[in-house]
Every structure is written in C-alpha cells, then in structure tokens.
Amino acid sequence: MSNSILRNILRFIVLVLAQITLFNNIDFLGYINPYPYVLFVLLFPIGDNRALLLFSSFLLGLSIDMFANSGGMHAAACVTVAYLRPWILQSIFGIAYEYNAVKVSSAAYGERLLFLSIMIFTHHLILFSLESFNFSDIIYILKKTLFSGAFTLLLCMLFITLFSFRRK
C-alpha cells in the first residue's frame, strides 16, 4: 500500500474515534457542537478517484451515524459536501486545481480559510436542516450552523496547522 492510502485510512479511523469519543460529548450552550470529522473529506487527495471520495465520505458519515444514532444525516451531509468539493476547489484555486497542484494543508492562509469555511458551513447547514427538518426552525438552524461551524472551523484550522509540518 502506498503512503497516501495508509495516511487516509489512519486519518479516517482517528477522526471517527475522536468524533464519537470526544466531540460528540461537547454540547456548549445548546448551539456549539464541533464536527471535525469533516476534515477527512476536505483533506482527501485531489488527484484521487472521485468515486472513492464519495464512497469513503458515505462510510465516514455512516460510521458517525451509527454511533450517534442520527439516521443517516451525517452520511447525507458528507456525501453532498464530497460531491460539491471539486467545484468549490476549482472556484477557489482556479487553474492550480486543474493541474492537481493544490494541497489544502499547504495552500495560502486566505484560500485555505475560504475553502474550509464554505465546506464546513455547507456541511453544517445540510446536517442541521436534516436534523430539524422543519422550515419554521430556520433561526435555530442558522444559529446552530453559525456557532457550530465557527467552532469546527477553528478546530480544523488548528488541526491542519498542528499536523501539517514538513519533515526534512
């Protein structure tokens, strides 16, 4: 197995375990629930197979759903974000994306922040819309998306910064 495959398998396992053991137990003020497991979808290698990304995103969401007893909401949000990922990457990184020269962890700070923000807030909006499934709760959905998304974005930026050091 190549180094990239092992790294992705390890990232999948670590993020699922961290989510179900630590982050699912955080519920601050009823609005802040971090979901850093979405980092797997965001950091998946760009040149790899898109069908593999969609399938592994489904497995990631399904794994979280099984432990959180959430009925497929995480799987739906993960697959949707994985499906939208190429268009968002292309709109942010432009021609560098077409030549597979983009690596999110080593991108410029502004581009990385914009990409993570769009992806995380999209994921959270879908997730909380499916959780509530009631249009009359739009304020609750937006509040939860904003606060949980901001905390998840902070955690993801922190994780990328801490774990993306270069070995010499």
UniProtKB/TrEMBL annotation:
Keywords: Membrane, Transmembrane, Transmembrane helix. The keyword Transmembrane helix applies. The chain crosses the membrane at residues 12-32, 38-62, 113-133, 145-165. This is Rod shape-determining protein MreD. It comes from Leeuwenhoekiella nanhaiensis.
